[in-house]
Design brief:
single chain; alpha/beta; Rossmann fold; 8-stranded mixed sheet; 10 helices
Length: 288
């Protein structure tokens, strides 16, 4: 039976119903889900700070999986994956490569959101033959403007969420305008659509290690991004508080083969707020 088929042999077409599977490599048992067609180059999703499998917007996953095989996974020590979470982006990238190769893939497209976009940049440099195309969303380069402040912002908005009885993502991912607030509510509702076989939440120690890794990334010396020759789609909202939108412009300027999409009145979760537009752009870019 094919891995991305359910027990009846049907192709899995909805993230809500994609079974959680595991593969063991490098001493780690990685939890993952896959869906969409079996043929073509798979798109591996690399997720954001504190996120597990259930934090991907099902509209984004399902939209891209309509055309491409999509694989989402928990990195080492996160959610249902075993091991302890690394404290550097570079070590996370190494684990991601171990996972991708364990599934038998020798060529993939990468979609990295926020911290995942940092990991994707490293993979494109350490294992260039593995990567065909890159989508970098809500992210920034090593040493990028304001990235070292992610820890402070995350803590502040977590407290703010507790006081207002709201999910901190409402503040971290969306603007405080009427449209931004509404988009946040709709996104958070979509994250609850899956009711069976949900992933384990990230542990406090893993979250702390991820924050350390992002902080280090923010303090690093800028890398020579001209070595990344692959086509890259860079996307973000125009008002990203977590990884300031300036970083998206900076990435697009420094990557030799890039294009940039900026969504109006949107923040860190711009691709979730504008999921229809993002999916159309991403699919067109990947199919090119």
């Amino acid at each position: 039976m094919n891995d991305s088929q359910d027990v009846r042999g049907h192709e899995v077409t909805s993230y809500k119903n994609a079974p959680t599977r595991t593969v063991t490599a490098g001493g780690v048992t990685f939890a993952y889900r896959e869906l969409g067609p079996r043929s073509g180059v798979p798109v591996v999703f690399l997720t954001h700070l504190a996120a597990v499998l259930d934090n991907w917007d099902p509209r984004v996953v399902d939209g891209i999986a309509g055309k491409r095989r999509v694989v989402t996974f928990d990195n080492r020590g996160v959610g249902a994956s075993t091991g302890s979470t690394p404290r550097t982006i570079q070590a996370m990238a190494k684990d991601a490569v171990t996972f991708v190769r364990a599934l038998g893939f020798d060529r993939v497209d990468l979609h990295g959101l926020s911290m995942g976009g940092m990991i994707a940049q490293v993979i494109a440099q350490t294992d260039p033959d593995l990567v065909r195309r890159l989508i970098l969303t809500g992210t920034g380069p090593a040493g990028g403007e304001g990235i070292k402040n992610v820890t402070l912002l995350s803590h502040l908005d977590t407290v703010r969420g507790l006081f207002t009885l709201q999910d901190p993502k409402q503040f971290l991912f969306f603007t405080r305008t009427a449209a931004g607030r509404q988009a946040g509510k709709e996104f958070l509702a979509r994250l609850k659509e899956r009711t069976q076989d949900r992933d384990k939440a990230i542990s406090p120690i893993s979250y702390s290690n991820q924050l350390k890794a992002i902080h280090r990334w923010g303090l690093e010396r800028p890398q020579d991004l001209s070595v990344i020759r692959q086509p890259v789609l860079v996307a973000n909202g125009e008002s990203d508080r977590m990884v300031p939108s300036q970083n998206s412009y900076d990435l697009a300027r420094r990557l030799p083969n890039s294009e940039l999409v900026i969504y109006p009145d949107a923040g860190h979760g711009g691709i979730f707020q504008f999921h229809r537009e993002f999916v159309a752009t991403a699919v067109e870019f990947l199919e090119r």
